[in-house]
Amino acid sequence: MSNKLISREEDYSKWYNELVVKADLAENSGVRGCMVIKPYGYAIWEKMQAELDRMFKETGHENAYFPLFIPKSYFSKEASHVDGFAKECAVVTHYRLKNDDNGKVIVDEDAKLEEELIVRPTSETIIWDTYRKWIESYRDLPILVNQWANVVRWEMRTRLFLRTAEFLWQEGHTAHATEQEAIEESQQMQRVYAEFAENFMAMPVVKGFKSESERFAGALETYTIEALMQDGKALQAGTSHFLGQNFAKAFDVKFTTKEGKREHVWATSWGVSTRLMGALVMTHSDDKGLVLPPKLAPIQVVIVPIHKTDEQLDAISEKVGEITTELKKKGISFKFDHRTTYKPGWKFAEYELKGVPLRIAIGPRDLENGTLEIARRDTFEKKIISFEDTISHIEDTLEEMQQNLFNKALDFRDNHITEVETFEEFKEVLKGKGGFVSAHWDGTIETENRIKDLTKATIRCIPNDAKVEEGKCVFSGAISNRRVLFAKAY
Amino acid sequence: MSNKLISREEDYSKWYNELVVKADLAENSGVRGCMVIKPYGYAIWEKMQAELDRMFKETGHENAYFPLFIPKSYFSKEASHVDGFAKECAVVTHYRLKNDDNGKVIVDEDAKLEEELIVRPTSETIIWDTYRKWIESYRDLPILVNQWANVVRWEMRTRLFLRTAEFLWQEGHTAHATEQEAIEESQQMQRVYAEFAENFMAMPVVKGFKSESERFAGALETYTIEALMQDGKALQAGTSHFLGQNFAKAFDVKFTTKEGKREHVWATSWGVSTRLMGALVMTHSDDKGLVLPPKLAPIQVVIVPIHKTDEQLDAISEKVGEITTELKKKGISFKFDHRTTYKPGWKFAEYELKGVPLRIAIGPRDLENGTLEIARRDTFEKKIISFEDTISHIEDTLEEMQQNLFNKALDFRDNHITEVETFEEFKEVLKGKGGFVSAHWDGTIETENRIKDLTKATIRCIPNDAKVEEGKCVFSGAISNRRVLFAKAY
């Protein structure tokens, strides 16, 4: 298989699909819509998990684990929730296989479940059924719990990381004594997600909240972070829901207040998933392959020896040993690729494809000169650096790259937020450069749906910081007091 | 709910069930056989995961993720494998729910899968279907991959952690060019598991291999680590399988050797699960609650202030702040429980129940004297320690406790390995003190089954270090050349 990618210009969608597979991030499995996350892709996901998990714990959350299966009856208890997920549920109906008379393996019809089990598409129902047993008084609140888990949503059209039948995610589920506290929690987690996206993924996001029709099934408010991909399409990167007392009412979860009254508990839930892997790829990568922000790169520095003889390799290895000892001390991850089964040129292309931030090349002449060559993945810039400056140069450059990737993505994003006043302009922007269209909207679902039908653009969010400004709805002309962001989206 | 437990003496099985629930480790869920792992229990599991994951990576393994679902046809490809798991499989047959005419939520019969999907009970089949695409030549080998995942085995009689329909585990799946390398890998992972059990769980284990009838379905050899619980029953704590070329043949996975020949690949798989949580509880705990080895305790030191006035608490808190600053530097986890809603006596009992290794009590008189009281969970020994000696005392005692717990369990285990020569003795030991019975066995499945029927004892393993020794089978009298370990087991 050639490692060369189709260009983004030529076919963005195909470029993405090829890149995910060729850079060894993931691939389709033999199971419809389910992916295999390959070791290199999983290593990036592990780095994401580690940072998010740290941030969750710093904000007072603990991890726990709830069942994979949800009895159908639980699932039905919150009406809008079941409506939202019913059409994409994997259902377990039997618990045994057997051999038929011809020795073929078949489902044993005698082992039919009395009540079908749903493979969780999200865990609000099973968790609130559990919280009922955990919550008695105000002393038991708040409950601040997160779980790392797999979930299943039976999607008809799937794409690696972006939309798969099974995906990995975390789902936080918190319980509070007051409405205000629950709202603050859901807003806090939106901030945590935005910080993670910007500081680790180097991916700028707009913080906002969803219109009613785009809300999570069962939520009173859905806070979102929205990112922009290089093709001008938006991607919802994380959501945090204020659930009110909906699930507490459906599962009869009450607590005794300090004053001795019995009240329903207030809830939030929030999640990000392996979809972030797709967002990471599409935010920074180029026609040569992945571009990874140093903070999430499994290998930050790759070292490729350039040599003809074994003696030369020995001499290079000795020097490299000194460098990697220092890198280890600094907590910088590295790989010394001294395989002789591949040539340097092949290795260069391979690590470009895999988005390793820095590549060091070192040969016999370098040893004589006391220098080596360091190439940056983001700008392809190469520099000759003396041995003594190597470590500080690496440290500085990794930091600079992290910042540079963010700035580049921010410039792109900011250049792709276009304010429009008419529906003609609206359509032109979508047909042209794409990105977010900032427009007045009359607040009705009817208008939202009509615009969606006509343009495929949806309301991505009402930005948290949208300023109050009198205007007219871009579609209906009715009065509006703030702009919202529309876009075509993943 | 009272926090007092029934004693082990009175009802060991009930003691275990009560302890797991009351110490906030886990509880049964509304889904038959599926447990909820509560935050305190999950925190212990996270510590186990972190150490195991580090050990896997140090031995060259990478993590990846494979689908939850396995098509029935894959599952059927390795004959003994499907026989081993067919009777306990959760089967997904549909992918949609709908409302019936009365608005009730039902399974949509129009959304029936063409081929049923099995919720993975283990992942050999889906992984070897994937490896076929990854392996072309000897250059692609070995593949050293692990996944952390949930699996489902439909057990009829379940117990928290020990036997649940869904459980969490890791499963390593490796692919090798030679038989020898695969055997070495499976033996290496047995050693890794034994090291983890002994050095972190403080749980001594016997390393051995299984008799044919106790082997994993599809394995040529199953290496095991076997531990002994306080009630004299054995517990299989981890297994590592040499799979030969069985899965490579079933899934047609071949590679080109250096010499250009096409050969089937050699395989191993190995796993430990949340079952280890049950083993941990049953190895060390007592009638007052959990006893945790310091290396796996989520909280290593709890500090309880003894005070009457707010001023006293302020003065205590200031001193505690100095201590916890030092603990943080040393990487020792702690909790300062200054809640005024609970009394010190209640807190003492609570942290005993939860197995916190060290408890510090500190009051106004201690401040005057420059001392505090430190109590050990394992021996209940209390000591008055000066402020200046506090940190070093904590460090030393935690280390000593880790060693002490291991030694105690080792003594118990070694006192419960009984060599017998006759079947009468065999039965007497099982009826009396229990534990491992070391006996000669003629090597036949018939004898093994007869002994099992008559005594409920199974062959736990043939110890790796079993010495060659002529003898007669304890049951049939036939010639045998080594002893094996029998026991009743979880």
Task: Explain how this protein is built.
2 copies of one chain form a homodimer. The model of chain A has no long low-confidence stretch (mean pLDDT 96). The two termini of chain A are 28 Å apart. The first copy, chain A, is globular. In chain A, the strands form 7 sheets. The first copy, chain A, has an 11-stranded mixed β-sheet with strand order 3-9-10-16-13-12-11-24-27-23-22, with helices on both faces. Chain A has a 5-stranded mixed β-sheet with strand order 18-17-19-20-21, with helices on both faces. In chain A, strands 4-8-5 form a 3-stranded antiparallel β-sheet. Chain A contains 14 helices and 27 strands. Chain A is α+β, with helices and mostly antiparallel strands and 490 residues long. Chain A has 3 domains: 12-70 and 128-284, Bira Bifunctional Protein, Domain 2 (BirA Bifunctional Protein, domain 2); 299-397, 3-Layer(aba) Sandwich (Rossmann fold); 417-487, C-terminal domain of ProRS (Translation Initiation Factor IF3). In chain A, helix 2 packs across helix 6. At the A-B interface, strand 2, helix 2, strand 3, strand 4 and helix 3 of A face strand 2, helix 2, strand 3, strand 4 and helix 3 of B. Strand 5 of chain A pairs antiparallel with strand 5 of chain B.
